[in-house]
Amino acid sequence: MRTKLIMAAAASALLGCRGTTSEKPPVHLNPNMDFQWRVDRQEPNEFFKDKRGMRPLGAETVVHGSLAADEPSHVHLHEGLVDGKFTDALPAGMTLDAAMLERGHDRFQIYCVPCHNGSGRGDGIVVRRGGPAPQSYMEPRLRAYPIGRIVNVLRHGKNNMASYADQIPVADRWAIATYVRALQIAGAPSDDLAKGGN
Ligand code: HEC
After folding, report:
1. Under CATH, domain 72-194 is a member of which superfamily?
2. Labelling 103: which of 29, 37, 51, 134 has CA 20 to 30 A away?
């Protein structure tokens, strides 16, 4: 009799709610990250100065799929190519000035010096510790590279050198490439300088 009572109590505890509805949210024993704060559409948000929860798009936002990757200006900017040839011309909106070279110098110190060294001769600390050695930028083959070709190397990498497209924004890649060219001119053998540099 007693066991029957206990079993009946247990059964009603387990099955008691079946078939009945409730407005209350279900019991959630382990919420983890199921319940989080979020911004609803049109909702104000005190965090931002303009108090808009829906943030305006950044000025250079490009709708996914809308980028005309084969447009000449895009090919020039990203691949360093004009009419299928590597170019020395800077893309629209860029001017070669002290600020651009400064920027290139600054980024070069961060991204390139470990292997190429500050002089561009390819004997940076990584190489001295056993990394693969790049050629010196002063080699005639590399001195003949148009700036666009250096930009192209930064986008795609080359053999042992990885691509820097994910780390360095494209405008900085051009700044670095112009700085590499400046290094090449500065490091040119004197007979070349007598001919007016590279
Ligand atoms: C981790 C080492 C490393 C870093 C960092 C590095 N490079 Fe290189 N780079 C190499 C090596 C190695 C090569 C030679 C690639 C080959 O042909 O095998 C090379 C080759 C090059 C070349 C010649 C490519 C060619 O066509 O022969 C250029 C130009 C160049 N690097 C520019 C840069 C610039 C600019 C940076 C900085 C943004 C940079 N590299 C950062 C290792 C590096």
Report:
1. Cytochrome c-like domain (1.10.760.10)
2. 134
